[in-house]
Amino acid sequence: MRALQWCLHRLWLQYGGDLSDSIVISSTVAEVVWWGNEVNLCCGIALTPPPPVIMVVTAASTLGLGVHLVHLEIRGLWSKEEQVFHINLLELWAILLALKAFLPYIHGQSVQILMDNTTLLW
Fold this sequence. Notes:
The protein has helices spanning 2-14, 30-36, 38-41, 87-101, 103-106, and strands at residues 54-60, 64-69, 72-77, 111-114. By secondary structure, the protein is of the alpha+beta class. It has a four-stranded mixed β-sheet, with helices on one face.
């Protein structure tokens, strides 16, 4: 789209730069030709995410965390240094650890994170 916008800008300046003027664009201009190709118009990605196909469940407290994906499970305790952090940060770390650990299973998939902290929803 940027190339087409620059093309229109150049033509607009050539026509005098008046907003009320019409601009005539040749159908052979490379930037216009691309937009005229139906294949180019149909090969985009959706603006809305696909529905999730995998669910990762996370839980965190000030003592530790637990995450699972179907039959895979990870749990552990936070270090003494980590235990003093705010619960929202610990919840985020639990999600990050889960995504890193399960990456081979979730790569390229739409993932739903199930958790008990509504502060982290976006």
